[in-house]
């Protein structure tokens, strides 16, 4: 057995097992655009603590969700009733896919001319 094979075997022993929350979260979030942190913690049956929220945050970032603050996630949310949650990113990249080649953002009308100036 070579040295590299021994190192790979040793590294396998120290790999962390997969988080047991990941699978239920993946299944529950199929087709969902946004969900509150409280609802996700209730889904996995965890208490609402900072440690559990940080553990959830690591999983949600791996699932490509982004953190948000919203009134819409809380039933009856109005003005100062803001809750934290997670949402899928709307745009995949900085460049919009609706533009055509060579087209720039902005208005396409000519600049206005003053009367009497020719």
Automatic annotation (TrEMBL):
Compositionally biased region (Basic and acidic residues): 1-12
Region (Disordered): 1-22, 85-118
Superkingdom of source: Bacteria
Protein name: Uncharacterized protein
Source organism of this protein record: Bradyrhizobium ivorense
